[in-house]
Amino acid sequence: MRTVLILAFLLVSTPFFSQTEDEKQLKAIYDEALTNGKAYDWLNYLSNQIGGRLSGSVQAQQAVDYTKAQLDSLGLDKVWLQPVMVPKWVRGVPEFAYIENKPGLTTNVPICALGGSVATPSGGLKASVIEVKGIEDLEKLGRDKIAGKIVFYNRPMDPTMINTFSAYSGCVDQRYSGAAEAGKYGALGVIVRSMNLRLDDYPHTGSMGYGDTPVDKRIPAAAISTNGADLLSATIKLNPNAKFYFKQNCKQLEDVQSYNVIGEITGSEYPKEIMVVGGHLDSWDLGDGSHDDGAGCVQSMDVLRLLKETGYKPKRTLRVVLFMNEENGMRGGNKYAEVARNKGEDHIFALESDSGGFTPRGFSIDASEENLKQIQGWRDLFEPYLIHMFYEGGSGADIGPLKEEGMVLAGLRPDTQRYFDHHHAENDTFEHVNKRELELGAATMASLVYLIDKYGTVPVKKIKG
């Protein structure tokens, strides 16, 4: 018995079992986030008091004013607005569509204009439909079969892909370039199956472009809900003479001025080394943009607050950036990188949250092999919080333009299985965000920022050109 007691004493008294400084700091961050987090309250206001924040809209400006005021209240060393010109596309009167089996026999289906699309003629557009599974089918069919019709892109997201962003990437080209390509074959318009793994009645918008297509040759493009897409596909198989009608009133206006919202804590030892954490403040207009990307913005804001509240004094300058116009132009991310380069700023690290406010799983990292291994070496610190993914991959659209040799970029990676249920749709709303999941994401981001700041990045020898 005495031997057992001695062994027990040695086990509890040995330094091996005491918490390290890093473990204590991470626990303090998570405890603060889960008991006093501000992200959920900030998101509540952005979503329910302001709503969808399409670039150039009144709501986008209200979001700029609100988030700047909140950052001002945190006692940061500096908060400012960075001007950026952004596109202003307006949806207009809600869209309307139906499938016509024969004159007078119609079935309404949910659609929404794709961001950047032109309007239909004032009376709407009605034509026969030709279904394709992707842009590559257009050349096979040829102009004779396409001209004068509506092209219906009906390639679904691949449900076998566990990484839902890979499934999205596999078919989003039909949304972005579908109209430009179909127009070359004389199509009158395009209807695109929504980027959604679920069968429902919510059409999902998103950006599209016409490339170098002359203005008078541009054709209207709309997304149809997944249920609507299945119905349209079944209908035209049974009745090839069926027609599709849709009407939309969207319009592209002149660019307007907006802002990136920026706040920072000046580094105590290496103030010229800058670390960025951020998300995009704009959103589509159908919902209130809670997951895309209100969640990423409020998490990023809370990163700086969490570090301040836990008493951590950063060695390097920590900067939160709420980027404007990620959804339909990338103007905010490009402007921030342009200004940073013109000023000769030294950015060593950037972290973006733009994958929804779901349970965090880890990070994808765009960095050298040495820096990737350094971050992977911290895996044990994150394990108690069920964070386990540290893999090489993309970071985020807005921080991508910052990339330079030797810099570390990272993206927060939550569980993505439900993300595309809401992405760019009317149901991207506050009630679909879980408070605890959102707070865990903020704490996970703050923890990585803390570790990078404390230990720095691994210097990479630059190759002389």
TrEMBL record:
SUPFAM superfamilies: Zn-dependent exopeptidases (SSF53187). Keywords: Carboxypeptidase, Endoplasmic reticulum, Glycoprotein, Golgi apparatus, Hydrolase, Lysosome, Metal-binding, Metalloprotease, Protease, Secreted, Signal, Zinc, Zymogen. Its main location: endoplasmic reticulum. It comes from the Bacteria. Pfam families: Peptidase_M28. Residues 1-20 form the signal peptide. GO terms for biological process: proteolysis. GO terms for molecular function: carboxypeptidase activity; metal ion binding; metallodipeptidase activity. Residues 260-447 form the Peptidase M28 domain. It is found in: Endoplasmic reticulum; Golgi apparatus; Lysosome; Secreted. InterPro entries: CPQ, Peptidase_M28. GO terms for cellular component: extracellular region; lysosome. PANTHER family: CARBOXYPEPTIDASE Q (PTHR12053:SF3), PROTEASE FAMILY M28 PLASMA GLUTAMATE CARBOXYPEPTIDASE-RELATED (PTHR12053). Homodimer. The monomeric form is inactive while the homodimer is active. This is Carboxypeptidase Q. It comes from Flagellimonas chongwuensis.
